[in-house]
């Protein structure tokens, strides 16, 4: 305990921008490598600054406009490519050699000003049979922007995130079904009529061909837990089985799944108006020892028609040592929030989990970058799962939902991610599979959802098109999230209602390495043993088996099913109307 407190304090000092010595692995061993590494840091910053400008958030950064940044980027990137070529190939330290390899690899991913999740493509091109895999993928992402940002519902427009939230909160069965079917144009754009050469089915064939050459996200995630994809598949099935056992036998319609599990969303929604999202989020992180306001993070949380169709977090600038002082990382969060509510707040706290992950990195420039996708997504949920704990709700909302309802709300979202993970894993393995049939098989068997093989209702996640295979980082990531939450609670104590040592302690033990450590080693060292699904299985088993009433029988719910009875969502449609952005045009 003493050591633990000491280390926590040391990391806090780092975080408070105190001057620290230049050694300790934050600088290159060779002067030549150091110069190239700082050039790399400049190029890397210019790359993410261009993405910041192209996101539509602002037109200048540090007084320079887009043209100036692009010129700087091109010039410096060319210099960097030259300098990397000229570095000696022998006689360097192990650390320098590894840093050079990391810079070469990461440089390939620099987009140089291509806006994230806003492709320069048109959705209608997805129907063309003559376009290649990368262009088809971009066209499908464009569909999420063009159609997903503007779903027609009750004479107005809502975006995809709001529609998913409304599926939790809308008590009227007819309206809920209408929200679900607002997705039809999106499903159609992504998967046509689910014919064998539908846009998605052509795209996944391309993704699988690419993966056969270079590996997939699923292969990467399996490697990150030191397992093979077959073992990952077994774990995913185990998690789904645990949910199946805890959710009764009654079959429910897909438009009722989120609602049935979303009682906590409805009980608490009224206490989480749109304008409270950010203050609540900031207060929680302040209690965890991370002052988001002082970190200078750029927040872009309101919807715009041309904006990325999903919430994401990215670097603006990368932290580095400057004259012996740590200059902190600046992060940016983009999200299209029209509404408040528990589901949305969970997502905002998740995004800020990414923020504290990257701001805690203390390493040489080559490694001030994202850890693996699996680790990043898993860690972001470490703080965000707390909002489903009654003790968190009591402190930050002043009201709480019963534990069983809160847990069901959380794990229903988690198992959907696990279902998508299994879906993608099996699509990659057999890309000629009928996706509707596969999704129906998974969701009817494990989630007790009424089969609707005529609907491509799986096609609501941008990741399915943007980075096929990515969903495993959430589904398998949940296993790591539960492991980390359990280990932190055992080593440091409960943190659901805050613990000011949390951020410093995690910086020291988990986050400071950035992209230097592979996730397998990082998790093994953190836990002191290999990752296993046990912690998540235990969490899901906290859910007591319930008997669900069958769908469409709301008026006859008995007292025994009272956990699923809900008063009409108190600010349901009126809130939707008042938060509808003007920019989406006439209602
Ligand atoms: Zn994330």
Topology:
Layout: H1 2-15, H2 31-54, E1 60-61, E2 64-65, H3 66-86, H4 94-108, H5 133-146, E3 151-153, E4 156-158, H6 160-169, H7 173-181, H8 184-191, H9 199-214, H10 217-224, H11 229-246, H12 254-261, H13 263-269, H14 277-287, E5 298-300, E6 312-317, E7 320-322, E8 325-327, E9 330-334, H15 342-359, H16 373-384, H17 390-397, H18 403-429, H19 435-447, H20 463-466, H21 472-475, H22 477-491, H23 502-511, H24 519-527, H25 534-540, H26 572-578
Parallel strand pairs: 5-9
Antiparallel strand pairs: 1-2, 3-4, 6-9, 7-8
Zinc ion binds at residues 350, 354, 377, 380.
Describe the structure.
The chain is mainly alpha-helical. Helices cover 54% and strands 5% of the residues. It contains 26 helices and 9 strands. The chain has a 3-stranded mixed beta sheet with strand order 5-9-6. A two-stranded antiparallel ribbon has the order 1-2. It is globular. It binds zinc ion.
The unique ligands bound to this protein are: zinc ion
| Biggest sheet architecture | 3 strands, mixed
The termini sit apart by 59 Å
Strand content: 5-15%
* Count of alpha and pi helical runs: 26
Structural class: mainly alpha
Record field, number of beta strands:
9
Radius of gyration equals 24 Å
Q: Low-confidence parts, pLDDT < 50 over ≥5 residues?
A: 1-10, 15-23, 552-587
Overall 3D form: globular
Q: Approximately how much helix is present in the residues?
A: 40-55%
Biggest sheet: strands side by side, in what order? Answer: 5-9-6
